[in-house]
Design brief:
- It comes from Aquimarina spongiae.
- Belongs to the EPSP synthase family. MurA subfamily.
- It is found in: Cytoplasm.
- The chain has two domains: 216 residues, Enolpyruvate transferase domain (UDP-n-acetylglucosamine1-carboxyvinyl-transferase, Chain), CATH 3.65.10; 214 residues, UDP-n-acetylglucosamine1-carboxyvinyl-transferase, Chain (Alpha-beta prism), CATH 3.65.10.
- Helix content is 29%, strand content 24%.
- The chain binds uridine-diphosphate-N-acetylglucosamine and phosphoenolpyruvate.
Length: 438
């Protein structure tokens, strides 16, 4: 278990460039399985989850070449499908959430797809029904081995397009079904589709490969099946969750930070949500400029004067992956806010650690926390903590950077899952953080 030691209380200053988006990269990497031709992808983040998925692709027989930092070519012309039934795959496939998205492309191209129960954050129930109901709708046969927690779908005769109304707008579920439908016979219509920029990027990439997808960016996708897909080039967008994390970090440490090349048009409601906390988020070309909040930041209230709530929702709503950051930033705001995490039932428990550090938070129930900000009149106290999941981890790190004294965060592998080289990048803007090897 790796550890960070963080000396808090220092203002940071400078520029930070976001990495490529983790959740987009996981989808895009799975899409390389849909064609025997070469696919070139750039801006792939060098993070644990992505590297694990690249390893799975390699073990599946995908020929992978690294051209440059973040740029790889993939060629899936001679796959080793036996790997899917190996003990090794059972271990490697369950190491991350994103591995679930190899099933759709494999089913579409080879008539079968298998996956052990995927990993990812332990933040509540993470069911896969939407994925498999989608495949079944397309004509696949489904089986599940309860003992081994191993899922399988098969369609030796191929898939057939149909209309489907998803039971929820699942992000990875929509990506999986889209990747299966692009090679199905006939037209598939997916209503209540997720439409995060991750998915928009995936659909645009698939169209460049020869797919016929319309409705991109909406919750109604239409996919006219084609016989085969070819190669393409694709660049992963900057990671909007990292961008939100840096906005929170700047405000909470009263630092002046420029976040470079953020792709503003793909940030949706994120900048405005931080503005509701009173944070100045300035657009400067394609950068975000956050001035030092010397006088703190004041949480807005609603027009009628009632209490602000920040809640998650499928895109274009506010992503659940930034609620933990909103929560930690609110601990030093002027005013009160309720954070309502609707999607996941175990994602707010980390507030205990913030309370230990001196934050004023009431956990109303597993989904809702009320935060009363200190307005910097009292700083958080340094402590020792364990990172329970990726976003709680970064939130605790932000808390530690703002706290008085030296904090220790264990289990930083959770943070490394999604943040590239975070200690070095934070040191470059003045943070006092060191990585202590396990
Ligand atoms: C690898 C990857 O891309 N992971 C992301 C993906 O996970 P993932 O695709 O696993 O998450 P899903 O979109 O399937 O669902 C997330 C949770 O929200 C619930 N739910 C979902 C849709 C809805 O309309 N109502 C609802 O309550 C689901 O029951 C589930 O508990 O999307 C999540 C939701 O944005 C993000 O937190 C994860 O970072
Ligand atoms: C929940 C997350 O990731 P995963 O779905 O990979 O667990 C996240 O990125 O916040």
């Amino acid at each position: 278990m790796g550890t960070f030691q963080i000396e808090g209380g220092h203002q940071l200053k400078g520029e930070i460039t976001p990495q490529g988006a983790k959740n987009e990269a996981l989808q895009i990497l799975c899409a390389v399985l849909l064609t025997p031709d070469k696919v070139t992808i750039s801006n792939i983040p060098d993070i644990r989850d992505v590297n694990k998925l690249i390893e799975i692709l390699r073990n599946l027989g995908v020929k992978i070449q690294k051209l440059d930092k973040g740029t790889y070519t993939f060629k899936s012309d001679d796959l080793n499908l036996d790997y899917l039934e190996s003990e090794r795959f059972k271990k490697e496939g369950s190491g991350l959430r994103g591995s679930i998205m190899i099933v759709g492309p494999l089913l579409a191209r080879f008539g079968k797809g298998y996956i052990p129960r995927p990993g990812g954050d332990k933040i509540g129930r993470r069911r896969l029904d939407t994925h498999f109901e989608g495949f079944i709708n397309l004509g696949a046969k489904f089986r599940y081995n309860k003992e081994e927690r191993f899922y399988g779908v098969e369609a030796p005769e191929g898939l057939t397009g149909t209309y489907m109304l998803l039971d929820e707008a699942s992000v990875t579920g929509t990506a999986n079904i889209v990747m299966a439908a692009v090679l199905a016979k006939g037209t598939t219509t997916i209503y209540n589709a997720a439409c995060e920029p991750y998915l928009q990027q995936l659909c645009k990439m698939l169209n460049r490969m020869g797919a016929k997808i319309s409705g991109i960016g909406s919750n109604l996708l239409s996919i006219e099946g084609v016989d085969a897909l070819g190669g393409c080039e694709h660049r992963v967008l900057p990671d909007m969750i990292e961008i939100g994390s840096w906005i929170g970090l700047a405000a909470m440490t009263k630092s002046e930070i420029t976040i470079k090349n953020v792709s503003w048009e793909n940030l949706g409601i994120i900048p405005n949500t931080f503005r509701k906390l009173g944070i100045t988020v300035e657009k400067s070309g394609d950068d975000i400029y956050i001035p030092a909040h010397k006088d703190g930041y004041q949480i807005e209230s609603y027009i009628d004067g009632s209490f602000m709530t920040i809640a998650d929702a499928p895109w274009p709503g506010f992503t659940p992956d930034l609620l933990s950051i909103v929560l930690v930033v609110a601990t030093q705001a002027r005013g009160e806010v309720m954070v309502h995490q609707k999607m996941f039932e175990s994602r707010l428990f980390f507030v205990d650690k913030l309370i230990d550090m001196g934050a004023k938070i009431i956990l109303c129930d597993p989904h809702r926390a009320t935060i009363i900000g200190h307005d910097f009149k009292s700083t958080l106290k340094a402590t020792t903590m364990v990172s329970p999941d990726i976003r709680a981890g970064i939130s605790l790190l932000i808390a530690a950077l703002s706290a008085k004294g030296t904090s220790t965060i264990h289990n930083i592998e959770q943070i490394d899952r999604g943040y590239e080289n975070i200690d070095e990048r934070l040191r470059a803007i003045g943070a006092k953080i060191i990585r202590v090897q396990a």
